[in-house]
Amino acid sequence: MSDVRKQGARQIAHLREISPWCWEIPQTGEMRVPGRVFSDSEFVTRAGQENALEQVANVACLPGIEMASMAMPDIHWGYGFAIGGVAAFRLKDGIISPGGVGYDIACGVRLIRSNLVASEMEKAVPGLVHELSRSVPAGVGRHGDVRLGHRELDSLMTKGVPWLISQGYGWPDDIEAIEDGGVLDGANPELISPRARERGFAQSGTLGAGNHFLEVQRVEQIFDEAAAWAFGIFSGQLCIMVHSGSRGLGHQVCTEYVKTMGSAAARAGINLPDRQLACAPINSPEGRDYYAAMACAVNFARGNRQVMTHLVRQSCEHIFKSSAEKLGLDLVYDVSHNVAKFEEHETPGGRKILCIHRKGATRSFPAGHAGIPEKYRAVGQPVIVPGDMGTASYLLKGTSTAMAQSFGSTCHGAGRVMGRRAAKRAIQGHELKARLEAQGITISAGRTSTLAEEAPEAYKDIDKVVEVCHQAGLSKKVARLRPMGVVKG
Description:
alpha+beta; 8-stranded mixed β-sheet; 7-stranded mixed β-sheet
């Protein structure tokens, strides 16, 4: 048995189920808090086998961590922190870590609804997918038609989506339907390097590659009529989902600060169980600089999805021969799942401002919370969880249980069970495309090899992942959406 498999076996042996859908890694050795994984037995066993539980335990060793190092049921191995991880750090003695956010800073999802009935538009979907693939550039390093100069890029990084809307890329009502009103405070563009700027100048409104997508979807099932009504969702509705992030600019910010944080941790006397957990005290110069640079990338990512929304509306106008306003192409919500933010939470020591790292985890705030749009405040925050391109995605709502148990967090997607290289070896892209199209799903992909990386069998069962969160109370099911057409990079 390899060392990694031995470590995984030891982690599984030490796990104990502390409540239905929640497993604990006991606090041992250098751990300052226990690990806590919201999961069923199948997913937590898999996480142990691929050494992701070791990563949860490693995060528990970092200074200033509050309550527990947590993971969602879509957990899988990542850079330093497991993907699906949630960790909260105190301001006075805690840290901030680029590895706890990830390379695709503020990668996230937004859902655009329509007043169209999907079954009446089936013949138009192939044309719409083609138009979307033509108007939204996709693929590694692809540039778009929106070219920003230094001054415009600074405005986007500091003023976020409201600035883009002032330039004509969207509707004023979009702002309320974006986490933080589309702008994260504290950004400082002076901390963005020339190389990061160069990568960002021409990538607003571009999809990228990997697991990013545009999907035309049909609302297949409603679980919560009241919440669906509040979100403007009805059975059989045609919707469009957008999944992308901060592109090359965000990747460059993470790359540069991972290097900076390695030496900063050493100067602060922080003993790292894994060098990929490079970090700095929140209130150190390096910690403050990373947050300000990360906030620039967060605002860039939200702006990227906003420009894509503008292009989606234009594409729909072209195909359906009607205005976006008459088609009812309103934004339901936009939420990021790779981010570090300062939030106030209840802890055993009272209410505290904490630095919440969500890496592959989604904010899930409950009804009544001041941080969600007033129009949704009676039901809770919309939580958008993309699945794979052959199965389904979900619209959920935030809960008070999530606030009490997971710092207001829930899952972010299905979570991989197969690496990209393994998927490419096991699956033929052209065969996958034919299979999905036989299921009535129109596919547009730049390269069939890229398509194979994102095959449905490369991911966990999204229905099971969402069911764990629903049963654990971290988020509640509102609607299930099935893909009709997919654009991949």
